[in-house]
User: What shape does this take?
Amino acid sequence: MELLKVYQQTLAERLQTVVNKEEPSQLYDPIKYIIGLGGKRLRPTLTLLTADFFGGNVEKATHAALAVELFHNFSLIHDDIMDNAPLRRGKETVHEKWDVNTGILSGDAMLILAYRLFEAYEPPMFQELAKLFSKTAIEVCEGQQYDVDFEIRDDVTIAEYIRMIDYKTAVLVGAAMKMGAIVAEASQECQEGIYEFGRNLGIAFQLQDDYLDAFGDPKNFGKQVGGDIIANKKTFLYLKALEKSSASVSSSLRNLFSISPKDPSEKIQTVKKIYNDSGASQATLKEIEHYTEKANSVLETIALSNEKKEKLREFGAWLMKRSV
Assistant: This one.
């Protein structure tokens, strides 16, 4: 999206210098590797955009944006280990390219490096940013634990699932935008408003990610398509399919999510057919639209110009229609 390109360029240049140590290479090479894989960099880009929209100094916001990006990639390294995922952004995951112990330690180092970036700010702002960062980090851990717990539960509700993706994904999007507002010294009302805008977009984003996991083009998606089905993850698609299917189809779906065949291709195709036939895939798209519209409703309450609000609405619409 054109709106984001100028901020993404700033980030790309600074990310090259954020990890400037070479030794021990077994610690720092994996960090440079995952950073070098690129990705959408939506969260740190939103930090810079928000700072700019509230009249702040984009350069000053760069340290907070880099902290967000390092934290996000730290969580990806550890998530991939827990999910035993082979691919990330179309390339080998860190634990596959090196090993699990290296992935754990390099991830830990990324988290520490993220916290250190806040040292660039004066004490009051440092405290505000670090407090938000710590709150968000523990919520992301809680969301990940809910995700793990759901794998062995048969009674997960849609409300519980939304709470899980809110914590695991959406709060970091909200925090990324609020950090930009903090650096710009926006009013408390604006800070909270942009946080809620980002949080609702984050839920829509994760629902879209779940949808693309099943129905995305592997050439564009960059991850193993059907990975959630292989891992028996109880996503919104799965829960909606149970809700909307007959008893016999629901029973078949539950059974499919209790097995892990060596060749999962047939399982993936069968599950995807159930998602489509039950209407779960269409219901997921409607839910994505619902949370995008909810974000836009919050946007109306924020003290920004109509032009900037329109740009943020366009960003939300673009995010909802993405294919990667």
About this structure: The chain has a mean pLDDT of 93. Residues 2-122+131-320 form a domain with the Farnesyl Diphosphate Synthase fold (CATH 1.10.600.10). The radius of gyration is 20 Å. The beta strands are 87-88, 91-92.
